[in-house]
Give the backbone structure.
Amino acid sequence: NGMFKIGTQEITSTSATLSGGSVTVSLDVGTSAQLASVTGAAGKTIFTDDAAKGSYVRITQFETDDQLKITGAKESDYSFASGDLDNDGSADDLWIVYNNTALGIENDIGILNAISPSVFVFDKATAISAVGFSFISFG
């Protein structure tokens, strides 16, 4: 019928921009009493986090085409650490935390099974090195 597909996008005689194929997932979910779980299993996933909103979330299946995009705070406002957040006996999880005590806002983001248990993460640079690619941006 005069068209073909690339993935799920239809190509026809009408001009259209190819979609990037990414999925956007908000990390502004969960509570301190009930952590939320999100996944990068859908493929290229952009995880967004608004620092002005509380986040208590664990990310599974984080892959090399996934990204974290943080808004509302600077890189220096966040702390990075490695540990065993999922209690599986291996310190292979990345922990990213923002705490604005004046406003009562905390962002507690864990990326599960994302790093080698033999590495020690203590800042953004060591987190990027441990994950193996530049996975996080602030702006």
Observations:
- Helices lie at 124-131.
